[in-house]
Amino acid sequence: MVTGTTSPQGAAGRVDAPLTAPPGRPRRRRGDGRAAVLFLLPATVGFGAFYLWPALRTMYLSFTEYSLLSPPEWIGLANYRRLVDDHLFWNSLVVTVEYVVINIGVQTVVALGLAMLMFRLTRSTLIRGILLWPYLVANVVVALVWYTMLDSQLGIVNHMLGWLGIDPVAFFGETRTVIPTIALVNVWRYLGYTALLLFAGLQAIPHTMYEAAALDGANEWRMFWNVSMPLLRPTLVLVLVLSVTGSFQIFDTVAVTTRGGPINSTRVIYFYIYQQAFQRFNFGYAAALCVVLLAILAGLAVTQLRLLRANEIDAE
Predict the structure, then answer these.
(1) How many CB atoms lie within 10 A of CB 10?
(2) Could you tell me the domains of the chain?
(3) Position 316 pLDDT exceeds 90
(4) Percentage of residues in the chain with pLDDT exceeding 70?
(5) Is pLDDT above 50 for 6?
(6) 137 contact partners, CB below 8 Å, separation of at least 6
(7) C or N: which end of the chain has fewer Cβ atoms within 10 Å?
(8) Residue 15 clears pLDDT 90, i.e. is over it
């Protein structure tokens, strides 16, 4: 017969600490924090040297008059007041928005269609490589090749149009065709990359969701709208944010083909910043344009994330 219980306390009333950590909470090793700092240090130094410091320097220069020939002179908000009355800046912003709308609209729709075709019909590595090939070519090379192919006199595209009885089209020489042409050239380059991102998002969707929809009698179209699109939302938002941000930074295609012409119809905002800084040496004003562009891109990114509810998946 047991007449008492053994107390865990010692003579002085001290409670011995448990020898093992409580379940569910992994014990942190002493060197984990130091190793994490060492791994993050190169990226942190690179971010500070090539992103943070240039951004802070640009913000400072936006309040100065600076031309490389003399030290920066503080002028306050004069560059921003000048920007408000600069019709070339507003024209460049309108041209850039036109390019972004065409580029993102066509690229997203076609890339989503290609991703769905790969997901439902084939998952061949060879096809993925073929789709990604244009993205691996330098953007300047892509621009020059298409500039030659679309030339109104010697381009192969206009020769093919001539065989069909269509008059030659100055794709890069007319104000009504030049921005759509540049946008579609960049769609061709980035289409495969965007399609593969969306394809990766589709692969993350559990196959049981499609099986359940098929048992309920849903056809391919219903499964696309009721299963694929809701579950693809986080990936689609990521693709849109990256694509819109990258499209606003269009520069090289314009620089090697039209150089802002004809009649300012392709003077996108990045090319206008380049002209102010490295052709007219108005570095202070160019810095103010950069700060405004940064604010626009940050606002667009936040707006997209909120309107498209990036962290939600509304599958029924």
Answers:
(1) 9
(2) 87-307 (1.10.3720.10)
(3) no
(4) 88
(5) no
(6) 189
(7) N
(8) no
Q: Which of 72, 45, 113 is nearest to 286 (CA)?
A: 72
Q: Could you give the CA distance from residue 280 to residue 289 in angstroms, rounded to a whole number? A: 14
Six-digit token pair at 264?
């300012």
> CB of 232 within 8 A of CB of 202?
yes
Segment 39-43 shows an average pLDDT of 91
Check if the beta carbon of residue 247 is closer than 8 Å to that of residue 104: yes
pLDDT value, residue 10: 45
**Gap between the Cα atoms of 57 and 141, Å rounded:** 32
HSE-CB of 244 using CA atoms within 13 angstroms: 21
As a whole number of angstroms, the distance between CA 83 and CA 36 comes to: 45
**Dihedral sign of CA atoms 259, 264, 270, 271 in order:** positive
Contacts of 48 (CB under 8 A, 6+ apart): none
pLDDT digits 0-9 by tens, 126-176: 888 888 899 999 999 999 999 999 998 889 999 999 999 999 999 999 999
Q: Give CA–CA dist 164/202, Å, rounded.
A: 40
**In contact, 204 and 233? CB cutoff 8 Å:** no
> In terms of DSSP H, where are the helices of the chain?
32-47, 53-61, 78-84, 87-120, 125-136, 139-149, 156-163, 178-203, 207-215, 220-223, 229-231, 233-247, 252-256, 269-274, 283-307
Residue identified by tokens 């600076």 is: 66
